[in-house]
Amino acid sequence: MGKQRPMFCCYWCISDICIMAKLKLRKAELWKIGVLLGIFVIGVIIAYQIQKPKETLPIINPAMLNEALVADSLESVGVNHKISDFNLVDHHGVERSLADVQGKILVVDFFFTTCPSICIDMTKNLRKVQEAYKDEPRIQILSHSVQPEYDTVEVLQAYAEANGVNYDQWWLLTGDPYEINRLARTSYFAVMEQGEGWDEHSFIHTENIILVDEKGRLRGFYDGTSDVDMQLMIDQIPLLLDEDE
């Protein structure tokens, strides 16, 4: 008579099958929970991206600035400042006005061609802006000479050639010194207060490079001699490009 298989063996076999089935069921449940959790997390991320405030640059008005840069008549202006019209000549001898840059983002500075110090770095850094946005027609660089009696069209043209200025995107401007001073003091706030004895030979320009949006509003001041500041400008310009898209 053969030996009978112990009953406990069958019991353990059945138990093993039940445990395996439960484990498979638990794995399936965990997988479903994982999928649902993943969908939930993705939904939260998408909702955050949709609802989070869009990064923007501040709109800068005269009342926010150092009084030494601002004409007395504008020191208390806290809203709605925009650059004014102008009548200057570029380094190809073409007359330029606000109409020529209407709807463009402007990168603006004040310099002179014989400047032995900060202007060299400012021009070098503006060339980086030009290179970064060489394929973007909405960017226009305007460099105003603060010694227009010396910086004639011919002098500016030679300076442009020596410094890799692309005429399609960067104009060196000259003209009436009083007009240039007016722009510096009442539009861009880039020249220090001149004092009682001011004349056309005594501009005290700053290293500031000013970012102006397509509506003519001031949106940023950057140290034109600082590689870090100018890289920040290059990185922030897309914020203005995106505003009107």
Helix content: 40-55%
Q: Identify the quaternary structure here.
A: single chain
In round numbers, the mean pLDDT is 85
Find the structural class using helix and strand composition. Answer: alpha/beta
What is the percentage of strand-forming residues? 5-15%
Number of E-type strands: 7
What gyration radius follows from the Cα positions, in whole Å?
32 Å
CATH-defined topology of the largest domain: Glutaredoxin
User: CATH superfamily of the largest domain, called what?
Assistant: Glutaredoxin
Can you tell me the CATH class of the largest domain? Alpha Beta
Number of domains: 2
Number of helices: 5
Distance between the termini: 93 Å
Q: What's the CATH architecture of the largest domain?
A: 3-Layer(aba) Sandwich
| Major sheet description | 5 strands, mixed
In which order are the strands of the major sheet placed? 5-4-3-6-7
Low-pLDDT segments: none
Give the CA-based shape. elongated
Organism: Phaeocystidibacter luteus
Disulfide bonds: 115-119
GO molecular function, one term: metal ion binding
Family: Belongs to the SCO1/2 family.
Please sum up the structure shown:
The protein is of the alpha/beta class and 245 residues long. Helix content is 40%, strand content 13%. The strands form two sheets. A five-stranded mixed β-sheet has the order 5-4-3-6-7, sandwiched between helices.
Tell me about this structure.
The protein has 245 residues and is an alpha/beta fold. It has two domains: 8-52; 62-243, Glutaredoxin. Helices cover 40% and strands 13% of the residues. The strands form two sheets. It has a five-stranded mixed beta sheet, sandwiched between helices. Strand 6 and strand 7 (218-223) form a beta hairpin. Helix 2 packs parallel to helix 5. The radius of gyration is 32 Å and the shape is elongated. It starts with 6 loop residues before the first helix and ends with a helix. The chain crosses the membrane at residues 30-50. GO terms for molecular function: metal ion binding. This is SCO family protein.
